[in-house]
Structure formats: C-alpha cells, structure tokens
Specification:
Layout: H1 12-17, E1 38-43, H2 56-69, E2 74-79, H3 92-102, E3 108-111, E4 129-132, E5 137-140, H4 156-167, E6 175-176, E7 183-184, E8 203-207, E9 210-215, H5 236-262, E10 267-272, H6 291-304, E11 308-312, E12 319-321, E13 331-332, E14 353-357, E15 366-372, E16 385-386, E17 389-395
Parallel strand pairs: 1-2, 2-3, 9-10, 10-11, 11-14
Antiparallel strand pairs: 1-15, 3-6, 4-5, 7-8, 8-9, 12-13, 12-14, 15-17, 16-17
Helix pairs in contact: 3-4, 5-6
Length: about 400
C-alpha cells in the first residue's frame, strides 16, 4: 500500500496566506528530513492517435497505468501535456475519458495542458474549422447530423475552460489517487493581478527541499503566431489570451523562484508543455513569442545558482540537453541532436540549467522515471543525470 506523500491536513490556510505574504511558501509534501531520494513518473504526448478513430494508445493506457502503479519507487505522476494528437478531435467525451483513465493511477497526477487539447482545437485537422475569406465566417467541421465536431466549434478559450472544469475541478487538488498538496495560482495569485485567478492549472509544490512549478505554456507558438481557424490575422480574443497568460506565467515563475530562494531550496523543476526551442521546420521567428519566458527562466536560473531542470513534451522525441548554453552535450533519439537548440534563442550562457523532452506519441507507451536525490547537487552531469536529478526510460510491460 502506498503511503501518501504527506498527511491529509487542512491546506486552505496555506493557500489563503500565500498571496498575502511575500515570503509565504507551500508546505513541503515530503517528510521534514531532506534525506532519501524520491521518484516521479513523467510522461506526455499520450495517448495519441494517427486519426480521429485511432484508439490504439487509449486502449493501451490501462496497461501502462498498471506498469507505473507497479513501480514501488514512484510517488507521483507528472503529465507534460497533449492528451491527444493534432489529428484527433477536441471533444468533451474524449477529455472525460482520459480523466477517467487517470483516476486509476495509484499516486497523485499533476498535469499541465498541451496545445492539442485547447490551443490547436481551432484547426480543421482537429475538428475545428477553416476561415472563409469570402463570407468572413468559419466553416466548421461538422458530423453527420450537421453539428460541430469539436467542443464549442474548436474555440481555444472555450476548450481551455473545458479542460479546467474536468482536470482542475478544485484549486490545488491533483488527479489520480493519494494526496499531493499544491498551491494553485487560482488562490495564490498576486493581489495586484486578480485576473491571474483563472490560471488554476499553474501550481507549485515542494518535496524534500526541491520546488516544482507548472506553467501553462502551450507548444507550437504559444497561441500567438498561428491565427485561429487560419484567418489572415490574429483576432483580438487570441491576442488577449496569449498576452494575459504569458504575463501570468511570468509572475508565477517569479513566485516559484522566490519560494525556492526563501526556502533555500536545493533545486527547482519547471514543468511546461512547450518545447520552446523546437523549430519544427519553421523559421526562428515562429518561436519569438517564447522569448520573454526563455529570458525569465534564464535570469532566474542564473541568479538561483543551483540546479534547475525543465521537463517538457511537445516535440515528443526524447532529448536531454541544455538549450541555454551553446554546444551543450545532447543525448536523444534519432536526429534530434543534429542541431544545437541554443540557436533558437541565442545569447544565453546558463550552465546550471538542463531540460528533458520526454518521449511520447508511440507504442509501447513509456515514462521517464525521474529520481531526485537530496544532497547530490554537485554531482557531474552525464547522459542520464544532472546534479541531484537522474532518470531512466521505462516502457509499458
């Protein structure tokens, strides 16, 4: 039987106090001692399908969950976004199916949304529609009954609201089973920016001297380079969404590093969906709207002067490197290391940063077993370790 990560106690006081006190911090979810390693199962870009009717990975998910549950070291599961592919529809039924599958994890599940389940729902390939230049309207993808295939016709903002209602029903709560107390931006927002209360998906938690933070940063182009429905220009709603969310993400990142500094944390782990360095065949300008986030991560990491690890998906092919340092060592599948990610956002030199793109979208499903070892901050970086962090790839048995 798994022991909960921490006793079930009233967390509301900590959640309420957090935005009011500059030095307030989330309670540590581990034992008071910082000795002893702990492990998380990290995965993303799953379950995928090659078309709207492909359910092969969905069908494989229960066995995958059993494999994760059978790992005695794993104490939480982290999903880095994209619960379906860019060729599958955005429907409420599917979202609820994934949430129900995750309820069978024996440990708490922390999830940050990906672009495929909200940002890209407007695309015709995902069941949204196509902007008609002649009529000025959107020709929606419709089913045999003439109804829009996608939830809310693929409107990204509406689909994000749907994701929040299903996967984040209560601020600070996690999915799966067990208990993991997190601080949500919905209740721990900066009072100067009350609109940040909508970002219930952004959370912070602590474990044995390490601070973890999730940020809603969708892949592709941060929802601000590809106009919705293929229109000739970005709509006011799209521009407003991207601007507000990026600003909220930056404030939440500030808060996470404030907590890490005030608590003398041994390391920070940033969890987001976007591979902000992946060109995906496009020009460097396509990634330009990620620059404020990359810049903030770099500045905070350098000032923190201790190991900072980023976990992400999006490009869904395994890669381990430091994109904030030119010509860093790279390990990955296929040809992913043929190009230096640093060139996507050049000019940085931050040696205490590392990122891992977790592999996804193929069967057998796999997870990254991330082990965190307190007191190992000065350990040399290898192909499978970075300071206190080490990892191995595990597949469905």
């Amino acid at each position: 039987m798994r022991i909960p990560l921490f006793p079930v106690v009233a967390a509301s006081a900590a959640l309420i106090a957090f935005p009011l006190a500059a030095k307030a911090a989330p309670a540590d979810t581990g034992k008071t001692s910082t000795q002893g390693s702990f492990a998380y199962a990290v995965y993303g870009d799953a379950p995928y399908g090659v078309n709207p009717t492909d359910t092969s990975e969905t069908a494989a998910t229960p066995a995958f969950i059993d494999t994760v549950n059978a790992d005695p070291d794993v104490s939480a599961v982290v999903h880095v976004g994209d619960i379906h592919s860019g060729k599958q529809y955005c429907t409420e039924r599917y979202d609820r199916q994934v949430a129900e599958l995750w309820s069978h994890f024996a440990d708490p599940v922390v999830y940050t949304p990906g672009d495929n389940e909200w940002t890209d729902c407007h695309k015709a390939a995902e069941g949204g529609g196509t902007y008609n230049k002649t009529t000025g309207q959107v020709d929606l993808v419709r089913d045999a009954h003439g109804d829009p295939v996608d939830y809310a016709g693929g409107n990204p903002v509406a689909n994000l609201a749907l994701i929040r209602s299903i996967f984040f029903p209560r601020a600070g709560a996690t999915l799966g089973r067990g208990d993991l107390r997190t601080l949500s931006q919905a209740t721990a927002f900066d009072p100067a920016y009350p609109a940040d209360a909508q970002y219930i998906e952004n959370v912070i938690w602590k474990r044995k001297g390490f601070v973890f933070v999730t940020l809603n940063i969708p892949g592709g182009s941060n929802n601000d380079t590809d106009p919705w429905y293929g229109a000739s220009s970005m709509s006011a709603d799209q521009a407003a969404e991207s601007t507000a969310r990026t600003a909220a993400d930056l404030r939440w990142l500030d808060r996470a590093f404030q907590v890490a500094t005030d608590q003398d944390a041994q390391g920070v782990v940033i969890v987001q969906q976007a591979d902000m360095w992946d060109l995906d065949g496009k020009a460097v300008t396509h990634l330009g709207q990620y620059e404020p986030l990359v810049s903030s991560i770099a500045a905070h990491t350098r000032a923190f002067a201790r190991p900072v690890l980023a976990l992400e998906g999006d490009s869904h092919v395994y890669r381990s490197d430091n994109p904030l340092q030119q010509n860093s060592d790279c390990t990955g599948d296929g040809t992913v290391c043929d190009s230096d990610a640093w060139t996507s956002h050049p000019g940085y030199d931050v040696p205490n940063f590392h990122r891992i793109v977790v592999h996804g979208s193929t069967v057998p499903l796999e997870y990254l077993k991330l082990t965190v070892t307190p007191g190992a901050g000065k350990r040399a970086t290898t192909a499978t370790s970075f300071g206190p962090f080490s990892w191995s790839r595990r597949m469905e048995s």
